[in-house]
Amino acid sequence: MESDCRIPMSCFKPRVLALHALFWGLVSFRVFGAALLSEEKTTGTKVVTMPCWQMEEFVVATECTMCNGFQAKRIVACSQTGYVERINCTKSNKDEYKSCRSAVMEEHLFWKFEGAMLGLTVVFALLVVIRQQSLDRQASEKVRRQIESI
To answer: Do 62 and 96 reside in the same domain of the chain?
Structure first.
């Protein structure tokens, strides 16, 4: 008689449960340990000044544009997205550069994502069809063997 349980009973053996607990414990330790280490690195004695646009109001002086070769080497904000906008902080009256995301870049990333999802859909649809044919072949073979044994 076949069981309705989808989880094999061998998964409930103490050794298997202990191995699962050990594995997930190590994974959790690794993740939380990395988070703690990154916190310790950021709370060091080194003083980092925050950009003025994070602490006060600002006005966008130049809209989001692609960085050229000179700007990419000179302006740190260009390295994040490849696009930068010049802003003017109102209180301190400082001009700074802020990384931004361009609409053209976002549209390009969107279509790349859509293409990847379409490709994965085709691949998995083919896998489902192949698996279904295999299961149909196995079922018909089983029926044929049962008929032959009569």
So the answer is: yes
